[in-house]
Amino acid sequence: MTDRRAWGWVRHLQQGGTTSWADWTGTAEPEGAVVPGAQQLELVRRLNLAGAPGPRLVARVLAMGAPGRGQPDLELVGAARESRFGPRPVDPVTVPDHELLRVAVGILAEDVVARGLPAPPKEGRPRPWRRHYELHGDPELVAPIRADLVARGRPPGGGDPVHVILATDLGRMLAHVWTARAFGSGIPAWRGWLRTLDRHGSLPAPIDPLVTARTRTGDARPDRIHVVLDQEALPHLLGVRRLPDPLPEPAAEAPDLARRISGVAGLLVPDDQRKALMRRTVRPLLAGEPGSPLSVPEEHLPWLRDHAARITDGLSRAGYAVHGDPAVLVPVREPGVEAPAPRSTLALAIRIMLAGRTGADTTDEEA
Fold first, then answer.
1. Which of 76-80, 267-271, 335-339, 358-362 is predicted with the least confidence, judged by mean pLDDT?
2. Sorting pLDDT into bands at 50, 70 and 90, what band is 217?
3. What gap in Å lies between CA 363 and CA 354, rounded to an integer?
4. Separation CA 177–CA 273 (nearest Å)
5. How far apart are CA 50 and CA 65, in angstroms?
6. Strands 225-228, 162-166: parallel, antiparallel or unpaired by DSSP?
7. Can you give the pLDDT at residue 179?
8. Angle formed by the axes of helices 97-115 and 38-50, to 10°?
9. Considering only CA atoms, which of 102, 81, 95, 87 is closest in space to residue 22?
10. Is 25 exposed, middle or buried (0-12, 13-18, 19+ CB in 10 A)?
């Protein structure tokens, strides 16, 4: 009887139902040898609560394992015998959101890989009299500027380039590094990553202007190295009249979901392809999602302020041209999300799955 009750609930969910397992009383004939796992069934119920997933998407979720570290597929309490070995059966509503995310991310990663890369961005023919430059620093600020210059026939490089190091508030840059790596080859969770940096007392190299000036500029003369803290100085240094607007700050859940997708995509494609997929396919997919950006928790601001003081002193001693006030580097407590909540990241994953924005055929009815 318990198996028939379990299969009745499976059928209920397949038909768009939202009744929880604990409240379910109906029955149906078994459709297979094994009832789908509690994680998969609860994710289908959440999808039904949020919208109208098509039968293809439901079938994929029920068949999807949960990649990465975590629980194996869990059985339904009351529909499986208790055992002294392995995880105990559960009520699906008690399954943590991060376990449901593992299933959702498996679907999204497969879809992203199947969708592939969009057409590469156009590159303008290099202008013979362009300013020779190299652009370093905050990856979220540098990326759109470099892409815009390349499209206008002003790629980086050339003989005796001006080295431009773009920097801002250290807290904001820290969030930018984590975001950029989330939309790349992946990175640990935000809070754990911050704790590791704080414990070691180090900054990621891209956002330390002194480290960049000493290690990324080669044999450049000090007068060819410019640290830019005021972006008004950028057009003149790069030899252009205008520059693109900076990327909008993404909602904290977007890079959190991206880093999870990256981890699974890395099992499906080579690393260089994964990085390209994350930047050119996943990033546009998650752009514009509503929500607050990441913010560095108060507990980590003291060591960042110490670094700001060290960098300010080092810049004054090194003799590099500094454009703007070094006080810009001092982090302040910004409004935002101190850590992405798994429930919010799961809600974003569900929205993406229901919208079919990965390009997969997830909502059409079966033929």
1. 358-362
2. confident
3. 7
4. 20
5. 22
6. parallel
7. 97
8. 80
9. 95
10. exposed
